[in-house]
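#lab-general

N.A. 3:47 PM
ok so I finally got the sequence cleaned up, no stray characters, all 369 residues accounted for. can someone with queue access submit it? mine expired

B.Y. 3:52 PM
send it over

N.A. 3:53 PM
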Amino acid sequence: MARIVIILQDLGGGGAEKMMVRLANQLVEDGDEVSMLLLMAGGENLQWLNPRVNLLEICATRSVKALPTLRRWLKQLQPNAVLSALTHVNVISILACASLGWLARLSVSERNTFSLDRGVNSNWQVRTAYAVAPLLYRLLKKPVIAVSKGVAMDLVASAHINAKQVTTAPNPVIHHDWLVQARAASHHPWLQNKTTKVIVAMGRLVPQKGFDWLIEAFAKLALQQNCRLVVFGEGPLRAELTKQAAILGVADRVDFPGYSSNPLAEIRVADLFVLSSRFEGSPNALVEAMALGTPVVAFDCPHGPREILADGQLAPLVDLGDVEGLYQAMLASLQLPISEQGRQRLVQGVSRFEAATATRHYRQLLLGA
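B.Y. 4:20 PM
back already:
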């Protein structure tokens, strides 16, 4: 048994937070003593955290203000290994561990395409973190953990880090609790009582997710196919995307219901899942859809979809930004029913993302052989 601390800003609704919860849950099930240390507090993913995980919330108003308390907690916990996720949190964690002489205990994780992600946040503290992170990463004794090969290659190229200082580990997406959640009933009326084909997408309503492209492609599709589109998520582009759907004449066929408390139950009964992102790290929702046997279509964005879809062998991979191509792929997927064999190919294609398998990989990186 090892003592492991996982450091995050909070347990908000993002993919990084969800994956760290699943990693922590699997580690405690495997017999480790795990503490989840939050620089702030709470979040949508808190409900999924195993009660056996020791939850510590610093409740700082800003990440940087959590540094003194973080240092004290780490000193008290005396972990064998520390894992930090997200760039700005990584910077705080490096400073805390360096002050304790613990850089050999620390592993940091990059969850998104570094060169693109650093430009989407206007907060000066986050921008500063992205500027200094590459310098601090070179001080680490353990390699930076990237969520995909594409993220790793981008980190080497854009942050000028030696390739030997970067490694990859799959996200622990598929957990047995996940299967229980997936079997629950859908809450969305279009999916509860389906009278037509329903397409599902998921993510924050921000430019990165490319929902403007998806709505444009769907408007073309709606001229050929009786179908509906549900986009689960919340964000600053809600009004703009709603207006776009109205202008294109599909407002009655597109719904933005906000975050789902159980997105797996919605994806499971959908006829198609679409990933329209401009960039990603390793899109967990795409893996979840495939693990449920739901047909998928994805843009070939940097990074993750090409690796997950085996260069397009498992499902259609559309050139980034090709709205016509996305429409054609969606139409073909809806018109050609997937076989049980096809569903099993999708499920088997993402087996490396099973929590037990991915956690063994993480544990080896954190603690050594």
